[in-house]
Design brief:
By secondary structure, the protein is α/β, with parallel strands linked by helices. It contains 8 helices and 4 strands. Helix 5 packs across helix 7 and helix 6 runs parallel beside helix 7.
């Protein structure tokens, strides 16, 4: 319903803009009205419509280093709902001080996790403990992990890398803020697993 309202409002705004352009004798009056209604004229809009969730996320990120704040934020949503776009926008707002790891392949064992973290963040450690120490020696920052649901498999032995990553986050959570994105189904599964 919200999308329909948005599209209806956009169409009315476009028609009003076209009417103004016709009155001035400028614009796209040479094109049939069907085409001008289907294609936006002007600058490309922000790909992410401002949402209260994004404002809440930026508020959490801006105050994360205060005492009593957790060192991790989970961004959870269905596939295609804009988690990566939200993280793109967050990274743009944070600037150079933030780091990002977009997990593209399945990671199940610790060695794959260490390789991925070391390569992404330019660390030299070859174990989780060494990476933990290196991260603690660096200035505080925001670390974004996109598609964190790729760091486990629903099978026996499929949680080795995720368990080690969780320990790394707990060890560095007072020094760095971790922002992790998960698909909804994976997040529910992880929560059930932790309740056992």
């Amino acid at each position: 319903r919200r999308i329909r309202n948005f599209l209806f409002r956009r169409r009315i705004e476009m028609e009003q803009r076209l009417d103004k352009e016709r009155a001035k004798g400028t614009g796209t009056t040479d094109l049939p009205i069907e085409l001008t209604q289907r294609f936006a004229v002007g600058p490309k809009p922000d790909p992410l419509v401002p949402r209260p969730e994004f404002e809440a996320l930026t508020e959490l990120v801006s105050g994360w280093h205060r005492p009593g704040r957790p060192g991790i934020i989970h961004v959870v949503g269905e596939r295609g709902m804009g988690k990566t776009t939200t993280l793109d926008r967050l990274m743009a707002e944070l600037g150079e001080g933030a780091r990002r790891w977009s997990v593209t392949d399945r990671i199940v064992v610790e060695s794959e996790l260490v390789t991925g973290l070391a390569a992404t963040f330019g660390l030299a450690g070859s174990t989780i403990d060494e990476l933990t120490q290196e991260l603690l020696d660096e200035p505080p920052t925001v670390i974004v992990v996109d598609d964190a649901h790729r760091i486990f498999l629903r099978r026996i032995g499929g949680f080795g890398a995720m368990t080690r990553l969780e320990r790394l986050i707990v060890a560095t959570g007072e020094h760095h803020l971790w922002v992790m994105s998960y698909d909804s189904w994976a997040w529910r599964y992880l929560r059930q697993r932790h309740r056992r």
